[in-house]
Structure formats: structure tokens, C-alpha cells
Design a protein that fits this description.
266 residues, six-stranded mixed sheet, two-stranded antiparallel ribbon, 8 helices
Length: 266
Amino acid sequence: MLSRLSRLSRLRAVALCAVPVVGLIGAAAFVPLPFSLAQPGMTADVLGENKGEPVITISGAKTRGTSGQLRMTTIEATGPDAHIGLGDVLDGWFRTDRAVMPRDAVYPNGDSVKEIEEYNAEEMRESQDTATEAALDHLGERSDDIEVALELADVGGPSAGLLFSLGIVDKLDGDGSGGDLTGGRVIAGTGTIDAEGKVGAVGGVALKTQAARRDGATVFLVPKAECADAQSELPEGLRLIPVTTLKGAVDSLVALEKGRGSVPSC
């Protein structure tokens, strides 16, 4: 009898303890969590126009007509003030077209939306200047003689640097023998670039490959250090080419176009 009463007491205790636990789980579904959700964003052909304006305008040198596309890629993330609950996080973890990222990794802690926008715009301006310097240096041209203007509305950050440089090279020199650097293909990619032409990692590449394939790309240039991330959710029909420098990217595209020479792979 005592044993039975003891068991009943324990069951009542477990039942009573379970009530707060269930309550906490229920409450967690509505409590904002320190995460941002990201998804594939827009892409833009740097050889063409964006919102009616040419992305690359060159003066002081003869430019060539181009075919094919060089598409820079982006991701879209929820805003710094967005309410992200437990349900949103769980949903994001189980989807291949979403990524759950610490909010601090997307937005600097304590910055307002306006400050973040201003910071990203400044990063884009610096990236454009560096991309121009790297491209002209690759071609052996002087920036004193050639002026390059880059315009890409509503996009911030430095991750389009490599594609800007490739676009300038294609408009001025192509593959070096009269052909297009793209070989008429839709080429996409991502990567920062410094004045010496070194390509840097950017993050979010698994989502960017999806944006690229969605918009018709068959080749994706990825910083070599991010090959594994790019392969994790690689869309069918998209070929990865790892790059570490602007010269390496140009050489790989020329080899791909002409069908000879080595084209690296992840």
C-alpha cells in the first residue's frame, strides 16, 4: 500500500513538474531569439544594366561589346529588428533554401538600421574602387588614363568585388584574343577582392549558388576556402570553379571557353 501511494506521489510530482516545462516550451515559441534568417537574394549582370542604368561605365579607353553574363549574387536576411521565434528557427534549420545565422554575424551589435545601411554602402564603394584598381592592374592599364564608374542600386557590402573586376576585364580585353571572357555563358560568382587581385571569402555561398542557378547560371566562381560550403547544397547543373586570385579566375574562364587547359574544381 505504501509502495502504491509512493508511486502515485511520484506520478503527481512528475505531472506537476511537467506543467511549467510545457509552459516554457510554449512561451519560447513566442520569445524573440537572437537569430536572422537568410535566403537566396537577387543577382545582377555586371555586364548589363541594373534598374535601367549600366552597371559598368568606362571612359578613356575603347570598350568591346560582350555576350553572355557575369552575375554577382546576394543573400537576403531578415532585418535587425525582425521578430524571429522558435518556430522560425526550426523551420529554417530543416530547409535547404534558408539559413539560420546569429544576428550578430549579420548585423553589428547595437547598430541602427540606418547605420547598417550606411556601413554597407561604404563597404560597396570601397569594394568598387578596389575592384577597378585590381582589374586595371591586371590589364597593365593606368587608372590616370581610364575612368570606371560602377553603379548597382540597393546592394551593399564588398562581396561583388571579384565580379566587378571580371566585368571590367571583359569590357576592356575579353579573353585577350577577341572573344568573350564568358564564352557566351551565364557565369555567376562571389568573392571580395583586394588591390593585388586576391580573392577573399564572403559567407552565404550555399544560398548564393541557389540564386545563381535560379537566374540561369551554369558556372559559379567561388572563393576556394568556401568550396565545402558551396558544395553542401549545390543545385543540379551548376559547375563550381574555385578561385584565389583575379588572374586565376580569368585563366579558368579562358580555359573553359576555349576547351583547353586546366579548369580547377572543388
